[in-house]
Design goal:
single chain, 14% helix, two-stranded antiparallel ribbon
Length: 49
Amino acid sequence: MKRGAVKKGDGKEVHHVNAPRLGKLNNKNVRVVSKKYNRSKQPSRGAKK
């Protein structure tokens, strides 16, 4: 597997570094991170029930 590659089902995602909370993600640096880490960095989408 190529370094930094993300494959379906491997639990990894692309994290857009220093991306705005709202707006376009074009021309933003990216990193491969775990799904859990990426979810913790995203803003909450409402209260958990």
